[in-house]
Amino acid sequence: MSEMELRPGLADVPVAESAISFIDGKRARLEYRGIAAETLAKESSFEETTWLLLKGDLPTQKELAEFNHDLRSRRKLKYKLIDLIKSLPENGHPMDALQSSVSALGMFYPSRDVGNYANNWEATLRLTASLPTLVAAFSRIRNGDEAIEPREDLDHAANFYYMMFGKEPSAATRKVLDACLILHAEHNMNASTFTARVTGSTLANPYSVVSAAVGSLSGPLHGGANEEVLGMLDAIGTKANVQSWLENAIATKAKIMGFGHRVYKVKDPRATVLQELAENMFAETGRPAKYEVAIELERVANGLLGPKGIYPNVDFFSGVVYQSLGIPTDLFTPIFAVARVAGWLAHWLEQLKNNRIYRPEQVFVGKTNVDYIPLEKRP
Ligand code: CMC
């Protein structure tokens, strides 16, 4: 690569050394600290996986017990923060509410000395523990309900569900939500994680780091795609419409939401696990019509887009799963954030260990040496 060659989207340009997660995009392999994400989704818990991402190894029993305790005791929000959430427009997007409230959270727990590991660990615990409470609080308050206080006797996934719906999940629902959180927890140098690292590299406080990452995740080309997928499946309507809908979309160069990935040129391994979860759920209840449309879309797309290496990504089946859990569509991306905060924070801590501020170059294509014309001499 010549010194000033532009690589749009930084494709194939390494921007950091990282030991957190590994992707083999040709062999559909995703590992967190060396352990397959699929295995963690089946065997682990979100809390254990978060420790693994943050610290590098699985926790001992004692470490996990302490970590659980530390998270559970930091879930509750200050009443002023609840008041702030109450003042947000109820028809605003929950990702915007999350970005604002994460930023405000940092004002209650100032954490500007990022040279101090104890401070940083405290902020890591606070952010991981608080995001579900912030998401659940906005989701209730916007409907005119009171926010539900977190319960320390429930684990991360069960408590999140409880705070959203006011009832405990069944064991099967808890497991599905926990697995979804694990599968979304980390994915190396995606846009929001890179945002977190860039923001962290300025030595900004961790609440700003996470708030910036939430903003980045909200876009439809990134985390926002899961929400778009359901709209797309609705627009297609029936299995019979899939072929003509897809042909038309390809002819008009529309992006098929939930398909394609910068790194995976095969089906995203997370999509495969999410589909398994969906199949298990539907074994008892029967497949919803929307899932049938999704399956047909994948089948037809395999023929039309597969040759270009475009296959379902993580967002393709997650929406169908969340909808079956009764979760409103506009909370899909906030749930992604509740999970991905683990990866963002792991990358932030890693960035600080060997920090240099991000300051890339540009390829200048503008004018130079232009004379200033006083206003009165301009038309
Ligand atoms: N539907 C139709 N064509 C596609 C798609 C798609 N979903 N994705 C890529 N392509 C085509 C694209 O039109 C281009 O074709 P051509 O070479 O003929 O111009 C080629 O594939 C390369 O596409 P690209 O946009 O340059 O690829 P990228 O690596 O820059 O973008 C992506 C990756 C994920 C943004 C893109 O695939 C996309 O927009 N997908 C739909 C949105 C989506 O599902 N996003 C979630 C991503 S996974 C979770 C996450 O990271 O948040």
User: Which oligomeric form is depicted?
Assistant: single chain
CATH class of the largest domain: Mainly Alpha
Mean pLDDT: 96
The distinct ligands, each listed once, are: carboxymethyl coenzyme *A
User: In angstroms, what is the radius of gyration?
Assistant: 22 Å
Order of helices and strands: EEEHHHHHHHHHHHHHHHH
Shape: globular
The largest beta-sheet arranges its strands as: 1-2-3
Annotation field: number of helices = 16
- The class by helix and strand makeup works out as mainly alpha
What is the CA–CA distance across the termini?
A: 45 Å
Sheet with the most strands, sense and barrel status: 3 strands, antiparallel
Keywords: Transferase, Tricarboxylic acid cycle
Pathway: Carbohydrate metabolism; tricarboxylic acid cycle; isocitrate from oxaloacetate: step 1/2
Active site: 261, 315
GO molecular function, one term: citrate synthase activity
Question: Would you kindly provide a written description of the structure presented here, covering whatever features stand out?
Answer:
The protein has 379 residues and is mostly helical. It has two domains: 9-220 and 338-353, Citrate Synthase, domain 1; 225-324, Cytochrome P450-Terp, domain 2 (Cytochrome p450-Terp, domain 2). Helices cover 56% and strands 3% of the residues. It is built from 16 helices and three strands. Strands 1-2-3 form a three-stranded antiparallel beta sheet. A hairpin with a 2-residue loop joins strand 2 and strand 3. Helix 1 runs antiparallel to helix 8 (171-183). The longest helix has 25 residues, at 117-141. The model has no long low-confidence stretch (mean pLDDT 96). Residues 9, 190, 221-223, 225, 255-262, 308, 310, 313-315 line the site of carboxymethyl coenzyme *A.
